[in-house]
Prior knowledge:
The chain is of the alpha/beta class. It contains 18 helices and 17 strands. Helix 9 (238-252) crosses helix 10 (268-280), helix 14 (363-374) runs parallel beside helix 15 (425-440) and helix 16 (443-455) crosses helix 17 (457-465).
Amino acid sequence: MLDHRKILLVHPLGYGKEDAENDISRKANIMPPLGLAGIAAWLGQKGLEADIVDCYAHPDSDRIIQEYLERERPAFIGFSCTTSSFFDGVRIAKTAKGMLPGIHAVFGGAHVSALKERVLKDCPAVDFVCVGEGEETLLELMETVPVNPDGVGDIPGIVHRGKGGVVFNGYRKTTLDLDDLPFPAYEKLAGYPEAYTLPIFNYPKAPSTSCISSRGCPYACSYCDRSVFRRSFRYNSAEYLYGHLKYLRERFGIRHVNFYDDQFTFNRDRVEALTDLLVEKPLGMTFNCAVRAEHIDPALLGKMKRAGCWMVSLGIETGDERLLSRHRQNADLAMVAEKIREIKKAGIRVKGLLMMGLPGESEASIRRSMDYVFSLPIDDFNLAKFTPFPGSPVYEGIEKQGRFDEKWEKMDCMHFLFVPWGMTRERLEELFINFYRTHFMRPGVLLGYVAMIWKSPHSWRRFLGSLGYFLRFARSSRRLG
């Protein structure tokens, strides 16, 4: 007999475990699967039991999964997949079905939410897809299947196999109040918090972690997925968020938090209320956040600094304003430059987020991006290789804008699978490496990293321990060493 009150939640690795030891992205950053931890806490609150296996943090997890299935015999196994890890999830689902005939494989996340019916049509091992937010949908599914299997046709947010073929039941009409959710079940993540690390030089003290305090984004950039939250935007209150931070500090000893929100400062009143709480009742923590230039100013930045803000990430995307205007609203690079200077003046580190290879990209636009970035007081930056993900507006008709080799297992923003007309993959790789090398050889940037010896000693120890892998990446830009 299978236990219908129990589910194993899996975060797949996405590639062979033998490559994980040399994977530069894992050495630089291992983020906890907060979505799964949140769902586990929600189901536990409702009387169900959910456990988590994070294959990304623990690559040699096949044995752990198999032992769990044999011991606990759950009736459900759930997967939260990115595009690049989807096929690894399918592989694990096949193994689970071979061990426990009758187990139900449920997939969620942006990739399957975008593709919906196509997932079940192409992959027999997938039984259900949860489209959008998973808490209520998965709860209803687990409560319905044991007593009325045909009742899944009435659960909004589910893709399933009906009598007439694969059916999507439509989106849920209501959403949860985020302040009603329990804190994520961090304790169900093996080795937390030590097994998880923020990007090197992106935090002052360890242990550090990530936290999500909002869902969705009110903007509609061409390259961003909209399949899970669509155009909605909700956020936790300042009081809830302060309590969350206090819990992380007292339960796990967390010293620094990275808010993994798309738009942390979109609601100014919330941020001001939170910073007031952190100043009035300090927790001994610092934090990073991502902002959009339109929503910050010197007064707000000053409050954030006093509350412990250590670094701000800001989406630049490209230093070519004409190209930028094709892909996002309010493409005002002069304004972005001024905001970066305001962040630095407030005493907060700045991280620029960019992409190379957008539709319409040219060698000239890449040169303009380099000139723009190198003219600014940016401390750190991340340059992603543009990838047209299912669910993003640009994905539709992408083949008209360049050559696209749609290999899902390589769609991780570290491969040039899309090449704009007029460019070659080889030239993009050359320019990518040159962009990074030039940035890190700038005297001001080098001095900033030297200062990290005392500002972020934990980062330096990690960096020196993996120096060979970072140098190899600098020479080749390949993800796996």
